[in-house]
């Protein structure tokens, strides 16, 4: 009786403290008794274990099949001997006999404890995996724990995440105990449990920060169409509005630049150009090269290549330091961009014209060109606010 009471108590305690389903605990107990019995009998018998809620015990049963001639005495019984137990039995029936399971109770309790601990871990891992997989591409706040081979381990409360070295911002320094915000980019189930991967360099990190700062973005009035970054240095954000009364650039910049400044502060001073998005690739390219002013654009739609002509004093601004501005603009538009000064373009056109033999159209550098003069492109672009 004492054993049954203690077993009942153990089950109730596990269910209450660990929050595990009662059926899971009972199955673990039954499996533990069955495993111990099979080990003793060397798996020679057909055994089953069942928890009896009335007695509070795990009962063990041995089953034998009724046959005419016994081949395996551990699993079979002949018809005559079987009818001494049950007169109505027929060949092919299964007879069950309850065995003494008291010898397995203590072993079962110890084994069940290990099984239950494992099931608790599995349940917790599954819960964490499901919770965070639903939060992929969200920004989350955690606490820095330690470094491991350059990777940053972050405590998220119920789980631990990894910020790989390649996903960390250049020149950012963290110490254990520091708070950190990062984007959940991936979650994988491993043998050690869920592995949550974070990033502070992903373009979506920038988009999510603006979504948190700008109500119009969160509500879908302003749409972020494209984002490119040189993490820690500079980024370009292309936005559009679904409401003609809402200026998308102004909404993202905020009053006196408050909204964009909050994002810049979070990204440790990363400069952000917010530009109007346009379906017109030439206009979009002019916007993307901001703050440089564009004089003329040649578009080859087939190969998605652009030749951009700028004034001499705008050339270095358009290209940017180490080519950063034109590189970001090319990634933002998805086009190859070649920038020339007006003097270089005029010189190239003169050389091409002088070598013209009448078989080709002079001055046509691409197969198909769409030449847009500064009056057509930059006047419209100039009316739209740009910010660096």
Automatic annotation (TrEMBL):
The keyword Heme does not apply. Keywords: Cytoplasm, RNA-binding, Transcription, Transcription antitermination, Transcription regulation, Transcription termination. Residues 353-388 are annotated as: Disordered. Residues 353-366 have a biased composition (Polar residues). The keyword RNA-binding applies. InterPro entries: KH_dom, KH_dom-like_a/b, KH_NusA_2nd, KH_sf_prok-type, NA-bd_OB-fold, NusA_N_sf, S1_domain, TF_NusA. It is found in: Cytoplasm. It holds the Pfam family S1. Residues 137-201 form the S1 motif domain. It comes from the Bacteria. PANTHER family: TRANSCRIPTION TERMINATION FACTOR NUSA, TRANSCRIPTION TERMINATION_ANTITERMINATION PROTEIN NUSA. HAMAP family: NusA_B (MF_00945_B). Belongs to the NusA family. Monomer. Binds directly to the core enzyme of the DNA-dependent RNA polymerase and to nascent RNA. Participates in both transcription termination and antitermination. This is Transcription termination/antitermination protein NusA. It comes from Pelotalea chapellei. The gene is nusA.
